[in-house]
Amino acid sequence: MRIRKPKSGRIRIQPYIDRGVVRRLRELCALRNVTESSMIEAALEHFLNGTTEAATIGRGLGKLGQQTRALHADIEIFMLAFGSWTKSWFAHLPTLSDEASDAAGALARSRYARFVEYVAEEYVDGRRFINDLPSEIVGGADRRSQASGNAGTPDDRGDNDGGGSPDEPPADPPAPAR
Fold it and tell me: What is the mean pLDDT of residues 16-34?
């Protein structure tokens, strides 16, 4: 490659390029009505600045990887909490007689329906369990908010104590924070 230095602020370079690439370059330049020099200069700028599509996609994939790791950690926390609760529930679950079993089944269905309704309301209101955990333990409020799609922390939304016993949602769920 020879480099010639004209009197203007630009430098002429003469790289050797494959004939097929030159043909495609000329076709594209004719289609866009631009000079070969301006097209090559723009392509080099994109390449050197890392603003090519591949670089942009790579940065996006990097961010997705970080978000995936954060979501994976959140799922592990949820599974640990669920496992701990299940062990505790089984440890305290009384054995029922056949007569009491039918009444308990009806009560369980009623409680489950209230539980599902409560969880749906909490979800719609933007409340996330991960935000109830101490930020020092789970990696900071910014990561938790980003991963859950929630902009606020529990303190931003007010009281998080739903009350009630562990096996039953509160009778009246807290009013949604707006």
Answer: 94
